[in-house]
Amino acid sequence: MTFHRWLVVLIILLVPTPLLAEVSGEPESPAELSPFYFRVGAYILNSSTSARVDGRDGNFGSRLDFEDDLGLDEQKETLLTGFRWRFRDRHFLEFEYFKLKRFGQKRIEAEITFRDEVFPVGANLDSSFTTEVTRASYGYRVVKRDNWGLAISGGLHVTRLNARLEGLVFDNVETPIRSREVASVTAPLPVLGLSGARHFGEKWVLVAKGQVFFLEVDDVKGGITHVAAYLEHNTFRNVGFGVGYDWFDIDVDTTDTNWRGSADVQFKGPVIFIQASF
Questions:
Q1: Each residue of 222-259: pLDDT tens digit?
Q2: Helix (H, G, I), strand (E, B) or coil at 274
Q3: H or E element at residue 35
Q4: Residue 52 in contact with residue 262, Cβ under 8 Å?
Q5: Residues 196 and 208: beta-carbon distance below 8 Å
Q6: pLDDT in tens, 54-86
């Protein structure tokens, strides 16, 4: 069973039976009652990146697996930041941000066409791939009980992708020259989400959430799937800690002048964080 299917099961389990809801007398956590909530953590992400960058004259580029074909880092740590503002009893705004830049070096075993450049067999290529994600959303708690709740959300998921290849090419001359090609695109896609939280005692909270959407906006057509589950501990009144698991996938087709082609980027891995509220 895939992770996002497990998440659906988890959200269902977050909702107790009516009997449990009636007998529960556990209060909401300070993080949920406080107007402002901050989170800072570290992702340990396993990445999978497949992309094609076509030339300006309509020539098709090579479909590349950046990890296998170019030696890009498969696992890397990065910083995650998040903020929530509960401006009314059931209404809140959320913001999340992270940026992951990975590098690779490899002597290629097949000819690669990237944008308007052809890198020959045996070329030593330096590469990088940067993914920058900004999420902003409005949420409304459709169910609010003492020990559990469900919320729906809608917002904007902005993903910025930047790919770079650099190496020696011959360019129809005997003496090789060093060439550098860069492609970048920004995909601002709307998302719809569902999240749930359930308390276990006074300190522990299990949180699960998912976001998904498929849409064409200007020069970008894409789909987003993001699911996550966290176990939080309200260690002190206004400070706590948590661990979780995050799974994120974006599939983009673009005709933008800075990136003509496609990209499929997937991240998954654990996260550990500290949270504060006031």
A1: 899 999 999 999 999 899 999 999 999 999 999 999 99
A2: strand
A3: none
A4: yes
A5: yes
A6: 998 778 999 999 999 999 999 999 999 999 999
DSSP for 56-103, written as a single string = TTSPPPPPEEHHHHH---SEEEEEEEEEEE--SSSEEEEEEEEEEEEE
pTM, two decimals, is 0.84
- Read off the amino acid at residue 249: D
pLDDT for position 18: 40
Of the candidates 272, 267, 153, 133, the one whose C-alpha atom is nearest the C-alpha of residue 209 is: 153
- Number of Cβ within 10 Å of residue 115's Cβ equals 20
Q: Measuring CA to CA, how many Å separate 33 from each of 20, 27, 275?
A: 22, 10, 14
DSSP letter for 29, please: P
Residue labelled with tokens 């107007």: 35
Compute CA 58 distance to the chain's CA centroid, rounded to the nearest angstrom: 30
The answer to whether the CB of 228 falls within 8 A of the CB of 195 is no
What pLDDT shows up at residue 176?
A: 74
Return d(Cα 197, Cα 11) in angstroms, integer.
Answer: 8
Calpha distance 82→97 (Å, rounded): 6
